[in-house]
Write a structure and sequence with these properties.
The complex is a heterodimer of chains A (191) and B (25). With 191 residues, chain A is mainly alpha-helical. Chain A has 9 helices and 4 strands. The chains are: A mainly alpha (191), B alpha+beta (25).
Chain lengths: 191, 25
């Protein structure tokens, strides 16, 4: 639920509340990661490093459901809908455009919630490895999760052999999104 | 005037993760 203010407030105030709504979303990704079978058997250092490099990408997948590519609008969990044009005032136009494209592609695959959750687990453990100490353990966890994702998807769609590879092709898209946009600025009011 | 602490999305995410793991130590 994002308490983004109605249009009447200044874009700085909208920006403050938009920045605030990232904090709970990040904490939810940390809790999600801890629920991934095998994640907590990684060293704490490697858990933290994976989360630092993968959380933005997991958030991008989670936020997809808020984006309506046809209407070019975003509906936050509190029910408030914003057109792409009005959100441009926040200065995140390029990120929003990229998000609409990405959510259109991912949305068109029609994944079930459990498939989406398993895909997010794969996204997290496929994140950048720089800083990881036990790369072998992370690669093993990634392999296990990819195998689980493949069998879940192919068991439900035995005659569709294209969906799984198409889904894996979203991983480089997410990495590009991350490289281009995770340096966007947030602003927090200091009272 | 109110002052603002500005940080990147990536730094904000890192900060919350570090905080979360420190709290659960």
């Amino acid at each position: 639920a994002c308490p983004v203010a109605p249009a009447s407030r200044s874009s700085q105030e909208v920006w403050d509340s938009f920045s605030q709504c990232f904090t709970p979303a990040v904490r939810e990704v940390v809790e999600f990661a801890k629920s991934i079978p095998g994640f907590q058997s990684l060293s704490q250092h490697d858990q933290v490093m994976l989360l630092k490099s993968g959380t933005f990408q997991v958030l991008m997948v989670r936020f997809c459901s808020l984006f309506d590519a046809k209407e070019r609008a975003v509906t936050f969990l509190n029910g408030q809908t914003y057109s792409l044009a009005s959100l441009r005032a926040l200065g995140m136009g390029s990120l929003l455009d990229a998000m609409f494209d990405f959510s259109e592609k991912l949305g068109s695959m029609g994944l079930e919630p459990d498939e989406m959750a398993l895909f997010m687990a794969v996204v997290l453990v496929s994140a950048d490895r720089s800083g990881i100490v036990d790369v072998g353990a992370v690669e093993q966890l990634q392999e296990n999760l990819i195998k689980a994702l493949r069998s879940l998807i192919t068991s439900r769609r035995p005659d569709d052999s294209t969906l799984f590879p198409k889904l894996l092709l979203r991983l480089p898209d997410l990495r590009t999104l991350n490289n281009h946009h995770s340096d966007k600025l947030l602003a927090f009011r200091i009272d | 005037p109110k002052t603002h602490r500005v940080m990147t999305l990536a730094d904000h995410i890192s900060h919350i993760i570090t905080q979360d793991f420190a709290r659960n130590q």
